[in-house]
Design goal:
Length: about 130
């Protein structure tokens, strides 16, 4: 029983060692990142503390202006679905307008042809009246 299990033990130990090493490297990476972020934050706080109040107020005004611009942009934002529906509506309105314009042209052409035929009929009847 022990002899069958013995060859697999080093493989399991090696797999566990690799997993532990990977976890250790990941943990050290996370700690290094956290340390960097903390040092950066402390440096920023020291920098902000070292500035005069006017500089801090100027930066706050700049941030407020950015917030106002973002708010205005957000108010003007149209959802993609609404835009696509509006685009479809405009497309269908354009098609209807073109179709209506085409029907109007046909009606004008038919009226002009009718007027010309009527004028021709009147001219023929006047000519026939005087030829008698």
């Amino acid at each position: 029983m022990f002899s069958k299990r013995a060859p697999t033990m080093p493989a399991e130990v090696e797999a566990n060692r690799v997993a532990i090493q990977a976890s250790r490297e990941l943990f050290e990476s996370k700690i290094t990142t956290l340390r960097f972020e903390l040092v950066t934050a402390i440096a920023t706080v020291k920098e902000m503390h070292g500035h005069e109040r006017a500089e801090v107020a100027r930066r706050l005004e700049g941030i407020e202006e950015q917030i106002k611009r973002l708010d205005a942009t957000n108010r003007d934002y149209v959802l993609r679905e609404v835009y696509e529906k509006d685009e479809e509506r405009l497309y269908s309105e354009r098609r209807e307008s073109l179709a209506t314009r085409e029907h109007g042209r046909r009606a004008m052409t038919m009226a002009l042809i009718s007027a010309l035929v009527s004028a021709f009929n009147i001219a023929v009847s006047v000519i026939l009246h005087y030829l008698r």
